[in-house]
Write a structure and sequence with these properties.
By secondary structure, the protein is α/β, with parallel strands linked by helices. The chain has two domains: 66 residues, Orthogonal Bundle (DNA polymerase, domain 1); 272 residues, TIM Barrel, CATH 3.20.20.70. Strands 3-4-5-6-9-10-11-12-13-14 form a ten-stranded mixed beta sheet. A two-stranded parallel sheet has the order 1-2.
């Protein structure tokens, strides 16, 4: 099948059971075929409709005339010296016109990055939810790229289903390119397909979603899924956070923590705060004291992250001794705190380094 022909067909990946049942009705197939397709797509991860061998040949031919599975392998892989692998995926993001309530258009020649992180018996995949990002955080390369469109649920899932070694993944984190709460409908649909049966059947405890905190959609996320939540905080006060993260001016960390206190985080669902330490900005003993006060009353953990320097920034990272002192203070004051291991920095795959702004041709 030529690329143009394939591009004109609809993808099955990203469709729910109800939507696949509608496909079956349209194509004159029995309704139970929808569950069979769910199994082939989300459990067996087949690349073509022809591989769905418990469907009749005639059914496969009818489906193939209009659809493809939508499972597309990465177009590039770059390996780090520490075993981390950064994958580049071609996607069809959704254009700005969709958000304005106009007919959706696909964004041509768009790419996103996903990062595979092996660690002993764990294998974590960090995936993207948007092409670029609107948040413009001062320490993040993705924000400098700007926002170029939302990913569909299928594009989000494809990163999980098509990455080499997909079957061995133990965890997925939505910490790649984009702000998940800014594309929440697609993110929630992808999470539902990952955690439902039929579907991938994962426990929501294997999935963590990271966000700067978006007013309205954050609460909806908490209510509609049981996946872990990670808040990109990076500052002990609204004033400091505002200098690093423009999103603070729209929905402050004070409003956000007040919202989070209304929910119970004492069970298996985890609430964590991500905190990059910047020398002379948010790493002083007084900052640690302020952070303890800011998180008072929340059952949570803090992940301290080393700053991965990006071009043209005045920010500098705190050294390891400073990170240890900061961690120890938080721990001594009742906040479980870890220093996250840095992975994939040599291939621009570490936290805050993902970017596909450079034009690539394949």
């Amino acid at each position: 099948m030529c690329d143009d022909e394939k591009d004109n067909k609809l993808s099955l990946i990203g469709l729910s059971l109800a939507e696949l049942q509608e496909v079956c009705r349209d194509e004159g197939l029995p309704s139970y075929a929808a569950k069979q397709m769910m199994e082939w797509l989300y459990a067996r991860r087949v690349a073509s409709i022809d591989e769905m061998t418990n469907l009749s040949k005639a059914a496969r031919e009818r489906l193939s005339a209009r659809f493809v599975t939508g499972i597309n392998p990465p177009v590039e892989a770059v390996s780090s010296s520490d075993g981390t692998v950064k994958y580049l995926f071609a996607v069809k993001g959704r254009s700005r016109t969709e958000e304005a309530g106009q007919p959706a258009k696909t964004v041509a020649s768009s790419f996103v990055e996903a990062v595979y992180i092996p660690d002993g018996e764990r294998a974590t995949l960090c995936i993207s939810s948007q092409v670029g990002c609107k948040m413009h955080c001062a320490f993040c390369m993705t924000g400098r790229q700007g926002w170029h469109g939302n990913l569909s649920a299928g594009d989000i899932l494809n990163q999980v289903l098509a990455v080499p070694g997909s079957e061995s993944l133990t965890n997925v984190v939505l910490m790649g390119m984009g702000e998940p709460m800014d594309n929440l409908d697609a993110v929630l649909k992808a999470l539902s397909l990952m955690t439902s049966t039929p579907g991938m059947g994962w426990s929501p405890r294997r999935i963590t979603v990271s966000t700067v905190g978006i007013k309205g959609t954050l609460e909806r996320f908490i209510r509609e899924t049981e996946c872990h939540l990670a808040i990109s905080l990076h500052a002990p006060t609204p004033e400091v956070r505002s200098s690093l993260m423009p999103a603070e001016r729209i929905f402050s960390m004070t409003q956000m923590t007040d919202l989070l206190r209304r929910y119970d985080w004492s069970g298996q669902r985890r609430l964590s705060f991500e905190y990059i330490l910047f020398r002379g900005v948010n790493d002083a003993p007084s900052d640690a004291r302020r952070l303890v006060r800011a998180l008072d009353g929340l059952q949570c953990r803090v992940n301290l992250i080393r700053f991965h320097r990006i071009p043209d920034t005045a920010l500098d990272g705190t050294d390891m001794d400073g990170m240890i002192r900061f961690r120890d203070y938080l721990t001594q004051h009742g906040i479980f705190t870890t220093i996250r291991a840095s992975r994939g920095e040599d291939v621009m795959a570490a936290c805050g380094m993902l970017s596909t702004a450079k034009n690539r041709k394949f």
